[in-house]
C-alpha cells in the first residue's frame, strides 16, 4: 500500500513538472477553468512599482537589467521554464527571457531598429522579426511598455505619461547610440511611436514602420472606458485565465481608457513630411478599424514628400490614395483572412505558428466546452475573429501567424535598405 501511495505521489509530481512549462500551460484545460475563477496570473506579486524610472543618463544595458528585475519581482511565472528558441540566449530559457526587453548588437553601431510592442503584449511578438533583422545587419532593440510583462492588473497602475516617457527614452537613447536607425511599432506601439516622432524627430531617424497602428477601435464605444473605469466594481472588460505567457488575455477597463487616449492623439498627429513610412495592416482587423488607418494615411499623403508604402492584406479591392505605394496581398495559404495579431509571425513559429503550442481560441473563453473543443480540434479554421468568420466557421481559431511572412519581410528589408544605410 505504501509503495502504491508513493507511486501515486511520484506520478502526480511528474505530471505537475510537465505542466510547469510555458508551452504546456495553454493546453491545460483544467488550468484554464481554474485560472478564470482564481485570477492567479491576472494579478502581479506585490513587490513595488509597476514601472521603472527612465532618464537620459540610463544606458540601454541598465534599462534592460532594471526592467528584467521588475519582471522577476512581479511576474509569478518569471522563472517558469520556457523551452523556446531565443537568439540572445545561450542557456535554458525561462519566461522572463522571452518577455523582457533585450538587444541584439552588431560589431558596429552603423544602423539599428527599435521595436515597440502593443497593448497587452510583450517584446516576444517580435521574436521572429528581431532575429531576421539582426541577420540582415541591424542591431535590434526591444522596449517593454510599463504595465506589461508582469500581470494584466498592472495596466491599472500605469499612465499614458508612463508609456510616452519610456518611448521617448528608447528613441532618444537609440538615436544617441547609433549612426542611423528606424523604429517599428505594433498597434499601440505604432501609435506611441508616431506621436513621439511627430513631437521630436531625431535627425538620424531614417524611417518608421507602423504595423496595424492603433488609430481607432472597432468598438465605437471605447471612449466610455475612461468614464466607466471610475465606477466601483467595474474594473475588467475580460477576465481570462492568462495562460499565454507572452500576452495578457484578461483586459482591464483602465487599459481601454489608456489606449483610447493614445488613439485620439494618433488621429490628430501630423508626421514629418520627409519621413519614409511603411504601414502593414489587414482590412478585416477586428481590433483596429483599418478604414480609419487608411483615412489617416491618405491625409498624410496629401502633404508627404517622402515615400509612404502600404502592405495591405485584403481579399477584395480596397480604395487607397493614389499617393500611397500599395502592395495588396489577396490570397493567404490555409487561412481565411489576416488578423490583427498574426502579422509579425511566420507559420512555423514554435509558439504562435500553425502547429505551435498556443492556439488562440479567445472567441470562446466564456464557454468552457467550446473553448476546449477549439483547442483540441484536429481540423480548425484560421482567420480573424470578426462576426462573419465566427458565424461561418466552427471552430474558428484567431490566426496568430502570417502565411505571407517571407513576402512581408522581403518588402521590409527593401524599405529599410533604402532609407537606413
Topology, please?
Elements: H1 2-19, H2 29-38, H3 60-74, H4 95-99, E1 103-104, E2 111-116, H5 127-135, E3 139-143, H6 160-177, E4 180-186, H7 188-199, E5 205-211, H8 225-228, E6 236-238, E7 251-252, H9 253-267, E8 277-282, H10 290-301, E9 308-313, E10 325-329, H11 368-376, E11 381-383, H12 387-392, E12 396-398, H13 405-419
Parallel strand pairs: 2-3, 2-4, 4-5, 5-8, 8-9, 9-10, 11-12
Antiparallel strand pairs: 1-3, 6-7
Helix pairs in contact: 7-9
How would you describe this structure to a colleague?
- It is a single chain.
- By secondary structure, the protein is α/β, with parallel strands linked by helices.
- The protein has one domain: Alpha/Beta hydrolase fold, catalytic domain (Rossmann fold, 3-Layer(aba) Sandwich), CATH 3.40.50.1820.
- Helix 7 packs across helix 9.
- The protein starts with a helix and ends with a helix.
